[in-house]
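[Automated response] Your request has been received and processed.

Submitted sequence:
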Amino acid sequence: MFRRLRANRFVVSLAIVLQFGVARADFDAAVSGSYRSYPLSGVAETTVGYGELLWGTEADALYGFVRLAADFDAITQYQATAVRFEFFPISILGARVGQLWQQNHQDYSSYDCVNNVCRGYFSEKYAEGQLFLGVGPLKLSGSYRYTIKSAGEVSNPNALTYYIDPESGLQFTNGQIDHSWRARGAALVELSPEYSLGYSQTQFVSDRSDEKSNLWIAFAQGAWGPAKLVVGGGEYDSSLHTSHSTVIAYGQWTFWPKLGF
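Generated structure:
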């Protein structure tokens, strides 16, 4: 039984962000599943959205667009819903704002859920900047996100000072508003229209506890029409964990492709 840790969103974002394919201005939809061996996580996700071309054409790399999207996650006793709005004045540079609500009813196997809150209702709001660059077969992406986090109903709010944030794997102040920063960079080399190799690094920094976590992943990606598969491995470490190797896997089926990279 997988314990859902939202840091596996790194895997989801990695595959989607590095897709670098322009779609039509219309509704989009996809389903996906992801797995990470350490800290153990897994999730099934459905994404739906609508993108509208503002100026330029899809053949022009500097077209502008807006997109509204929603994600619906579920695995065993974890559920989450997220909505976001994206504005890209040019297709390679833009920003997004979003809101996430999540409910967890089980402990995370990789964390101390006796001295930290793991179960309950949690929410967050974020703002993020995104940049894409490409030269020949080399594709690059970078993003920076600021997040406001809060814990709602928790299993033991009076006795425990911190709760575990499953996306970053860090401690945040229980019962209070807290903040985090996330920096992410990725590079992808296209070997052929179907196969690519890549590398990505993600770092989280918490505000009140001043903790950090890092995830480094080298991966191989295959894409065949609407199907995509990513497998890879790397290293995870944080203020709560010593460095540990990890393996990731991600699969996606796209019903209607999204507008943008």
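Summary generated for your ticket: The chain has a mean pLDDT of 85. Residues 6-256 form a domain with the Porin fold (CATH 2.40.160.40).
If you did not submit this request, please reply to this message.
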